[in-house]
Amino acid sequence: MPPSDVADAGGGAGPDSSGLDGAGRFARDWAAAAARLGYLRPSVAETTDVLYRHTQRLAAAVRAPSFSDQIGRDVGRGLVEGHLTDPAVLDWSVRALSERFLPLVLPDLVDSPSARERISHLQGALAEGFSRALRHRTFDQQSSIRRAAWTARDAAEQALRDSEARFRAVFTGAALGIGIADLDGRMIEVNQAFADLLGYSVDELRDVDVGALFHPDDASGTRQLYSELIKGKHDSVRMENRYFRRDGSSVWTDLAVSLIRHDDGRPRFTVAMVEDITDRYEMQERLRFQAEHDPLTGLPNRTLFFDRLSRALAAPDEPDRRIGLCFLDLDGFKSINDGLGHDVGDQLLTVVARRLADCVAGPGHLVARMGGDEFVILVDRCAGTPQVTAVAQTALTAVGAPIHIGDHQLTVSASVGVVMSPAAGNTPTEVMKAADTTLYWAKAEGRGRWALFDPVRAAHHVTRSALAAALPAALDRGEFVVEYQPITRLPDGTITAVEALVRWQHPELGRLGPDRFIGLAEETGLIVRLGRWVLERSCRQANDWRVNFPRQPIAVSVNLSARQVSDPQIVGTVAGVLTRTGLPADLLQLELTESALMAPGGEPLRALRRLAGLGVRLAIDDFGTGYSNLAYLRRLPIHVLKLAGPFVEGMRAAGPDGDRDERIVDALVRLAHALDLTVTAEAVETRQQATRLVALGCDQAQGRYFGGPVPPAEITALLAAGPVVPDGSAGPDGPAAGAR
Ligand code: C2E
Ligand code: CA
Ligand code: CA
Question: Nearest CA to 465 among 519, 530, 532, 414?
Answer without folding.
Answer: 519
